[in-house]
Amino acid sequence: MKILEVSGLQKNYKDINAVKGIDFSVNKGEFVALLGPNGAGKSTTINILCTLLKPTAGEVSYEGFEIGKDDENIRKKIGIVFQDNVMDNKLSVRENLLTRGILYHNDRKILKVKVDNIISTLKINDYETQYYGELSGGQRRRVDIARALLHSPEILFLDEPTTGLDPSTRKLIWETMETLQKEGLTIILT
Ligand code: ADP
Ligand code: MG
C-alpha cells in the first residue's frame, strides 16, 4: 500500500533548478534511499517531503494528506533525523528524550514507558545517563534517531545518517534502521 506519492516535484532557488521534476512513490514498510552526488537535490527533496520547505511545483501526498494543505497531520506521521545534532549537550541522553517527549506525551508514566522502549530498541541503555555532548558521533546519531521516534511516526526520514561515521559505527546505524524497519517503520533516507 502506498504511503507516499510524489509527482512532478520541482524546486528552484532563484535561478538554481535544485529539484528538476521527480516522480516516485513509497509503499508502507519500504526502505528507500534517494541517491545522487553532492548538489543533486537530496536534502532539498527531503525538506519538502517533511513540510519544511515549499516546492516550486508538484504534489506530495501521504495517504490523502497533501503537503501545503495538511502539514500538521503529515508532521504527526513523520520523524526526521538531520545531520546537525539537535539535542542539548548539557543534559543526559535520558533527560534529553524526556524533555523532548513531554511535548507529545503529557502523562509522565506513559512518557517514561515510551522513552524506556525507545532506549532499548535503539540499544542506547549503556550511555543513557551520559551527557549528550560527551557522546561519540555514532552514539549521538542513535540518540537523534530515538528523538525522532518519540511521537511514534510511521515514516522516518534521515538525511545522510552515516556520513562522517567510521565503518563499524555505520554498520551499527544500518542495523538500527533494519530493526526499525522490521518493527514496521517506513524508512526514507539519502
Ligand atoms: P544534496 O543534498 O543532494 O547535496 P541540496 O538539496 O543540498 O543537494 O542542493 C541542491 C542544489 O540547490 C545545490 O545546487 C545547492 O547549492 C542549491 N541549494 C540548496 N539549498 C539552497 C538554498 N537555501 N538557497 C539556494 N540554493 C540552495
Ligand atoms: Mg544534502
Query: Helix and strand succession?
Result: EEEHEEHEHHHEHE
Oligomeric state of shown chains: single chain
Strand order of the largest sheet: 2-1-4-5
The helical percent reads 25-40%
Overall 3D form: globular
| Strand segment tally | 8
Hetero compounds: adenosine-5'-diphosphate, magnesium ion
Q: What distance separates the N and C termini?
A: 22 Å
- Structural class by helix and strand composition: alpha/beta
Radius of gyration: 17 Å
Chain-averaged pLDDT: 95
Name the poorly predicted regions: none
Strand content: 15-25%
Give your account of this protein's structure:
- The protein is an alpha/beta fold.
- The chain is 35% helix and 25% strand.
- It has 6 helices and 8 strands; from the N terminus they run βββαββαβαααβαβ.
- Strands 2-1-4-5 form a 4-stranded antiparallel sheet, with helices on one face.
- Helix 3 (93-101) crosses helix 4 (108-121) and helix 5 runs parallel beside helix 6.
- The mean pLDDT is 95.
- Adenosine-5'-diphosphate (ADP) binds at residues 13, 16, 18, 36, 38-44.
- Magnesium ion binds next to helix 1.
Write the layout of secondary structure elements.
Layout: E1 2-13, E2 16-27, E3 31-33, H1 42-49, E4 57-62, E5 65-66, H2 71-77, E6 78-81, H3 93-101, H4 108-121, H5 137-148, E7 155-158, H6 167-182, E8 186-189
Parallel strand pairs: 3-8, 6-7, 7-8
Antiparallel strand pairs: 1-2, 1-4, 4-5
Helix pairs in contact: 3-4, 5-6
TL;DR of this structure?
With 190 residues, the protein is α/β, with parallel strands linked by helices.
What labels describe this entry?
four-stranded parallel beta sheet, binds adenosine-5'-diphosphate, alpha/beta, binds magnesium ion, 190 residues, four-stranded antiparallel beta sheet
